[in-house]
Amino acid sequence: MKKDILLLPGDGIGPEIIDSAVAILEAIAKKFKHEFTFKQHLIGGAAIDAASTPLPTETIAAAKKVDAVLLGAVGGPKWDQNPSHLRPERGLLAIRKALDLYANLRPVKGFEHLLDASPLKPDIINGSDLLIVRELTGGLYFGEPSQRSKDGQSVVDTLTYTRYEMERIIKKAFESAQLRKQKLTSVDKANVLESSKLWREIVDQQKPFYPDVEVNHMLVDAAAMKLITEPNSFDVIVTENMFGDILSDEASVLTGSLGMLPSASLAENGIGLYEPAHGSAPDIAGQGIANPIAMILSAAMMLRYSFKMDTEASNIEQAVEATINNGYYTADLKVKTGSLVTTKEMTNNILRNI
Ligand code: NAI
Ligand code: MG
């Protein structure tokens, strides 16, 4: 198959890990006789420097023409003092909105070999395997108004959702649960927030259409606690934008590092964007030591969700697991034994296992 892929390396470690993903995809193309072509555009701080906007119109236009988008990460201290419309993170929010990427899927799977890389007890995290389905284009991060009063003494952020926006992400989560262990935990704050009350109603309304899925509701504070005390009690978690953002970073602790977590951001009928759950890691950028696995597993998700290449995706996932099982680790993984490797060496080891 022939597929066009847009690369948005972004900032910090973004370009380093995008290189790793491209190397892996080229190996997959060769092995399975596909043709992948890569185009590259600007986003984030790199785009601000070159074009004075975090998301140039050419980038959006290019994204709409390809079969899928791979994004590294955006942001860094260089742009932290910029006014909010010139912040790299704006580019990310804007591309999610422009492509209507409403569903963010974040699988969290612990590797047996990395049990001691987590600060959590091995017997708690052993076997953890869950999927966070996060709403990505609504809620607090997009609600207007979001501003400070003229006198600086008060501030407002707005949490808005339409019924339609809630329904589509909840349906997506039910469908995801059907493909996994048929267990869905809906996370909200229905004891306080009006938005969460509607969310709960919609979950209950959808339930009869998915009789094979067992559903329960959980308040977000309790869910935050259970996620690290009883991770094995979860299969699919569905939640709104900000709760999902926070819970997915928390869940990364199960895997030993944020550098292990991939994600897929999907539209209803169209393009998918694939990016690691972590940010641009400015503290280690340019040193060649970033963990490329979250990015590489994101590329595998691209093959699975956008290209329907299940075998190829599994090939990458197995190659990653084999490499980890062979004892290779990057500096972010606090394991006690094995071989410490750089970004390039990790990538080459994974390539050998493809
Ligand atoms: P971060 O995820 O970039 O880094 C948090 C910690 O994890 C750092 O110590 C970093 O070195 C480490 N880390 C993250 N990914 C790693 C990898 N692949 N390999 C090894 N270590 C890794 O989050 P932080 O520091 O809060 O934010 C840094 C910048 O990234 C900020 O400008 C922030 O706004 C931006 N950001 C961008 C995101 C995106 O592009 N999707 C998401 C989150 C933050
Ligand atoms: Mg985040």
UniProtKB/TrEMBL annotation:
E.C. code: 1.1.1.85
Site residues by UniProt (Important for catalysis): 141, 189
Coiled-coil segments: none
General function of this protein: Catalyzes the oxidation of 3-carboxy-2-hydroxy-4-methylpentanoate (3-isopropylmalate) to 3-carboxy-4-methyl-2-oxopentanoate. The product decarboxylates to 4-methyl-2 oxopentanoate.
Domain Isopropylmalate dehydrogenase-like: 4-350
Single GO MF annotation: NAD binding
Complex formation: Homodimer.
GO cellular component: cytosol
Record-linked SMART domains: Iso_dh
Residues annotated as binding NAD(+): 76-89, 279-291
Locations listed in the record: Cytoplasm
Binding site for Mg(2+): 221, 245, 249
Pathway note: Amino-acid biosynthesis; L-leucine biosynthesis; L-leucine from 3-methyl-2-oxobutanoate: step 3/4
Family affiliation: Belongs to the isocitrate and isopropylmalate dehydrogenases family. LeuB type 1 subfamily.
Binding positions for substrate per the UniProt entry: 96, 106, 134, 221
Signal peptide range in chain numbering: none
HAMAP family: LeuB_type1
Recorded name of the encoding gene: leuB
Keyword NAD applies: yes
InterPro entries attached to this UniProt entry: IsoCit/isopropylmalate_DH_CS, IsoPropMal-DH-like_dom, Isopropylmalate_DH
Family annotation (Gene3D superfamilies): Isopropylmalate Dehydrogenase (3.40.718.10)
Keywords: Amino-acid biosynthesis, Branched-chain amino acid biosynthesis, Cytoplasm, Leucine biosynthesis, Magnesium, Manganese, Metal-binding, NAD, Oxidoreductase
Protein name, UniProt field: 3-isopropylmalate dehydrogenase
Obligatory cofactor(s): Mg(2+); Mn(2+)
Top-level taxon of origin: Bacteria
A Pfam family the protein falls into: Iso_dh
